[in-house]
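#onboarding

Welcome to the new folks! Below is a worked example of what a typical request in this channel looks like: someone posts a single protein sequence, and someone else replies with the predicted structure as tokens. Don't worry about understanding the tokens yet, we'll cover that in week two.

Example request:
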Amino acid sequence: MSTYPIGTPGTPWGETEKAQWLAQQKVVRSYQEEVLSKLTTIPAGFELKQYGALPYDESRYPLNAVVPVSFTDNVPNILVTGGVHGYETSGVQGALKFINTALAGYQQKANVVVVPCVSPWGYETINRWNPMAMDPNRSFFADSPAPESAQIMSFVQSLGITFDMHIDLHETTDTDNSEFRPALAARDGVTHDNWNIPDGFYLVADTPKPAIAFQEAIIEKVRAITHIAPPDDNGKIIGADVISEGVICYDKSSLHLCGGMTGAQYVSTTEVYPDSANATPENCNDAQVAAVTAAIDYVCQQ
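Example response:
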């Protein structure tokens, strides 16, 4: 059973345990300095739109998207999201780097909407969960109690368009085994075995529509930036079957994942491995940018 320091093994957390967990969380980096300050200059043809704010501290945690000033007919509609899990740094910083280095090149080719940090409280405290011990990336459903998920879903719906592609930027880190899976097991009063942390980049496609050629196009471009994760000794990555090199599948809608919220034809979740001996923060950010540009290029060519 779980040996996590909060709660009783085998018993799900109540409000007391969740409050104990929250009391242990500390702000260790600045959303203002590391994220908002990088959104002061937006490429021509795009604008910064505040779509909400987290109720924990609305002035500290505004929620922002970069959107086209005007949407063009008859081009693909693209959604890029980062920081659904706030602790996954390159998901946020990669999205910001894409905005600042590559987004302008797609102004005439696609309607690209970028939400670089869905969970700013999680970014500041380096957390997978929000303050209520909820995982925003398991909370994309109607009337979601997670404000991170509810507010971006409302924003996406307000745009009144059908998205052709959605890429969601994530990381898999060694802390998944040392902190986050033990915390999840303790919270839910169950046992979770540790899984082998993949050494390298991989993608999570959507089980009902895996779009293998689309995933392969992303893998091929990222390969020039960082290594692709091999399967483990059981031929799996994080417990899932490998359907193509560096590609596994989750059913994004049934799991209430961010990648399932648009119903797009082309969907992928990136997973960068920042704890590799061969990785640097910049390398991880570059891998995210490569994944985004490869994905958009593929869809624009269809």
